[in-house]
Design brief:
Order of helices and strands: HHH
Structural class: mainly alpha
Strand content: under 5%
Shape: extended
Length: 87
């Protein structure tokens, strides 16, 4: 069962609308825009979480960010089977 929907009217620059329509594929422009808005809401929520964490624990250093990126990359490699095993 799908989520209930509501029709809205939005205004956006023509070039953005045309690019979105060209990329929307068979699901259509409405689904494409809804997915983009959902991703933005997720990003906003993550930024709020980061702000709270930094207020409590101090700013995140570039080294900490890079360590987590490295950790994530290793996990992706393990999951995809493309990681190499050290002897």
């Amino acid at each position: 069962m799908s989520e209930p929907t509501q029709k809205y009217s939005i205004t956006m620059p023509r070039d953005i609308a045309e690019a979105a329509r060209a990329r929307s594929g068979p699901s259509g422009l409405s689904a494409y825009v809804a997915a983009a808005v959902a991703r933005q809401i997720e990003r906003d929520a993550l930024n709020e979480l980061i702000a709270v964490a930094e207020a409590e624990h101090g700013p995140i250093t570039e080294e900490e960010v890079q360590a987590r990126r490295d950790q994530l990359q290793r996990a992706r490699e393990r999951l995809s089977g493309s990681g190499t095993t050290a002897a």
